[in-house]
Amino acid sequence: MLVKIVCFVAIFGVVLASKTEEPFDKRIDLPSDFELTSPYFELPCMTFGGKCLPVEECPKGRLLSVKGLCPLQQKEGVECCH
Fold it and tell me: Residues 45-55: pLDDT tens digits?
Protein backbone atom coordinates (compact mmCIF):
# COMPACT_ATOMS: atom_id res chain seq x y z
CA MET A 1 0.00 0.00 0.00
CA LEU A 2 2.86 2.36 0.82
CA VAL A 3 4.35 1.76 -2.62
CA LYS A 4 1.05 2.74 -4.28
CA ILE A 5 0.88 5.96 -2.25
CA VAL A 6 4.48 6.87 -3.08
CA CYS A 7 3.88 6.18 -6.79
CA PHE A 8 0.70 8.28 -6.77
CA VAL A 9 2.42 11.21 -5.06
CA ALA A 10 5.37 11.02 -7.47
CA ILE A 11 3.14 10.93 -10.56
CA PHE A 12 0.95 13.72 -9.19
CA GLY A 13 4.04 15.85 -8.55
CA VAL A 14 5.35 15.34 -12.09
CA VAL A 15 1.98 16.18 -13.63
CA LEU A 16 1.58 19.26 -11.45
CA ALA A 17 5.11 20.47 -12.22
CA SER A 18 4.62 20.04 -15.97
CA LYS A 19 1.41 22.08 -15.90
CA THR A 20 2.79 25.05 -13.96
CA GLU A 21 6.19 25.52 -15.60
CA GLU A 22 6.42 28.41 -18.03
CA PRO A 23 8.26 28.05 -21.34
CA PHE A 24 11.95 28.90 -21.17
CA ASP A 25 11.67 32.12 -23.17
CA LYS A 26 8.96 33.39 -20.80
CA ARG A 27 11.16 32.82 -17.71
CA ILE A 28 13.96 35.12 -18.89
CA ASP A 29 13.80 38.30 -16.83
CA LEU A 30 14.62 41.16 -19.23
CA PRO A 31 13.85 44.87 -19.01
CA SER A 32 10.66 45.79 -20.85
CA ASP A 33 12.52 47.93 -23.41
CA PHE A 34 15.11 45.22 -24.17
CA GLU A 35 14.82 43.68 -27.62
CA LEU A 36 16.87 40.71 -28.76
CA THR A 37 17.88 40.83 -32.37
CA SER A 38 18.50 37.64 -34.25
CA PRO A 39 20.94 35.95 -34.58
CA TYR A 40 22.38 35.59 -31.10
CA PHE A 41 24.19 32.79 -29.30
CA GLU A 42 22.17 30.07 -27.57
CA LEU A 43 23.63 27.54 -25.14
CA PRO A 44 22.47 24.33 -26.89
CA CYS A 45 24.26 25.37 -30.09
CA MET A 46 27.34 26.59 -28.23
CA THR A 47 27.72 23.20 -26.50
CA PHE A 48 28.22 21.71 -29.98
CA GLY A 49 30.81 24.39 -30.79
CA GLY A 50 28.56 26.25 -33.19
CA LYS A 51 26.82 29.58 -33.51
CA CYS A 52 23.27 30.44 -34.44
CA LEU A 53 22.97 31.81 -37.96
CA PRO A 54 20.23 32.11 -40.56
CA VAL A 55 20.35 28.92 -42.65
CA GLU A 56 21.14 30.86 -45.84
CA GLU A 57 24.20 32.50 -44.20
CA CYS A 58 25.78 29.22 -43.04
CA PRO A 59 28.56 28.08 -45.43
CA LYS A 60 27.75 24.94 -47.43
CA GLY A 61 28.44 21.77 -45.45
CA ARG A 62 28.75 23.58 -42.10
CA LEU A 63 25.10 23.34 -40.97
CA LEU A 64 24.78 20.86 -38.11
CA SER A 65 22.52 17.90 -38.82
CA VAL A 66 20.99 18.24 -35.33
CA LYS A 67 18.04 20.63 -35.64
CA GLY A 68 16.55 22.78 -32.88
CA LEU A 69 19.79 23.88 -31.20
CA CYS A 70 18.69 27.52 -31.53
CA PRO A 71 15.15 27.03 -30.19
CA LEU A 72 14.35 30.67 -29.42
CA GLN A 73 15.21 31.72 -32.99
CA GLN A 74 14.17 28.66 -34.97
CA LYS A 75 10.91 30.27 -36.10
CA GLU A 76 13.01 32.96 -37.83
CA GLY A 77 14.93 30.34 -39.85
CA VAL A 78 18.00 30.28 -37.57
CA GLU A 79 19.90 27.02 -37.04
CA CYS A 80 23.22 25.98 -35.55
CA CYS A 81 26.20 26.40 -37.87
CA HIS A 82 29.60 24.85 -37.07
Answer: 999 999 999 99
